């Protein structure tokens, strides 16, 4: 059965917050609250998607650039292509919105996500030391990646 991708709407805030929280809990990160998601989706230039109520992506455009704010897929539903579908939706939206490039940050300790982004054409352009808090573990560095859209 093909996954169902749909736009994130105001009635999806609780679901989006739950997906984000559950997806990042294993890393020791605090998930976004309903209020966090609400503030993002009502901001100018932000778009979001849900896939089969198990995955979430949010993207923001400012000037001629876009940023992938998050992709989150529930642990029991990973490796099924949901993140790739969400990423492709974000890329298509960024292009349509007129962005010349799409940026993202990903944990240096997340090789699966980094491989996904590389497979879609993203290249590493920088990093941020100790960017992601990991509960009681040491903070993880972030890798900054960019996809040219033009």
Describe this structure in words.
By secondary structure, the protein is an alpha+beta fold. The chain has one domain: Aminopeptidase, CATH 3.40.630. 30% of the residues lie in helices and 38% in strands. The chain contains four helices and seven strands, in the order βααβββαβαββ. The chain has helices at residues 13-25, 34-41, 82-96, 111-119; strands spanning 5-7, 46-51, 55-62, 65-73, 101-107, 123-134, 137-148. Helix 1 (13-25) crosses helix 2 (34-41). The chain is globular and about 40 Å long. The termini are far apart.
- Into how many domains do the coordinates divide? 1
CATH topology: Aminopeptidase
Shape: globular
Give helix % range: 25-40%
Number of helices: 4
CATH homology group: Gcn5-related N-acetyltransferase (GNAT)
**Terminal Cα span:** 33 Å
Helix/strand structural class: alpha+beta
Assign the CATH architecture. 3-Layer(aba) Sandwich
CATH C-level class is Alpha Beta
Q: Would you report the number of β strands?
A: 7
Write out the strand line-up for the largest beta sheet, numbering strands in chain order: 1-2-3-4-5-7-6
Radius of gyration from CA coordinates: 15 Å
Extract low-pLDDT stretches. none
Sheet bearing the most strands, described? 7 strands, mixed
